[in-house]
Amino acid sequence: MPKLKTNKGAAKRFKKTGSGGFKHRQSFRNHISTKKSSKRMRQLRHLKVVSGSDAAAIAQMLPNG
Fold first, then answer.
1. How many CA atoms lie within 13 A of 19 on its CB side?
2. Alpha helices in the chain (DSSP H)
3. Which of 7, 12, 17, 25 is the most exposed place for a label (fewest CB within 10 A)?
4. Average pLDDT per run of 10 along the chain, which is 65 residues long?
């Protein structure tokens, strides 16, 4: 049986949580930030949990967690 390979692009973007879900960084924070309000930028700072419908696909890309 061949080894299971991790999708390296997904590995850089998602981390597994203790309860088995996945967390990711929010988008829209890299550039063109002058027109975005301080409140909006502050709220984008935190990590978000991936929705359940996407979690199965990410789990397949990250077989070893």
1. 6
2. 8-13, 38-43, 52-61
3. 12
4. 94 95 96 96 96 94 90
